[in-house]
Specification:
Elements (H helix, E strand, L loop, with lengths): L7 E2 L11 H10 L3 H5 L3 E2 L5 H7 L5 E8 L3 H14 L2 E8 L6 E8 L3 E9 L5 E10 L4
Parallel strand pairs: 2-3
Antiparallel strand pairs: 1-3, 3-7, 4-5, 5-6, 6-7
Length: 140
């Protein structure tokens, strides 16, 4: 039996200044507002992020956490969490840069919300940061 143990570290709410320049450039090309994804982001974890996003029912919300290692496993964990919901639809996903250090996805939850997921890793793959921003539909 193999048991995998990963170190998860909740992080302080990052600012746009904490985001690597290459991520900002890619985000700008795609029309993603990094400031919106990092402003007031709540520290979370792979196990809690969906609950944290659901609890923030007063409008748009964002969460973030960091883990040691490259981005493949954290990105996979995020997609599995949405799959396990049974009601979310993966709209698109893929690498956002040529080096494989930035991965993103759009996930739709019915007609109520869309989550923007951005997973970034350091150049050496030593630490990965996950950011999820939930955009809710207006009632009007």
């Amino acid at each position: 039996m193999v048991i995998a143990v990963g170190a998860v570290r909740c992080v302080r709410s990052p600012s746009a200044a904490d985001v690597p320049d290459e991520v900002v450039e890619v985000a700008q090309e795609l029309g993603i507002d990094i400031e919106a994804m990092t402003h007031d982001a709540r520290a979370s974890s792979p196990e809690r992020f969906l609950d944290d996003l659901d609890e923030a029912d007063d409008g748009d919300a964002s969460v973030t956490w960091s883990v040691s290692g490259d981005l493949v496993e954290p990105a996979s964990d995020v997609i599995r969490a949405y799959r396990d919901m049974g009601t979310a639809t993966l709209v698109t996903s893929g690498y956002l840069d040529l080096k494989g250090n930035v991965w993103g996805a759009l996930v739709q939850g019915g007609t109520d919300w869309v989550d923007m997921v951005v997973v970034t890793t350091t150049e050496d793959g030593g630490e990965t940061t996950v950011r999820v921003a939930r955009l809710r539909a207006d009632d009007g």
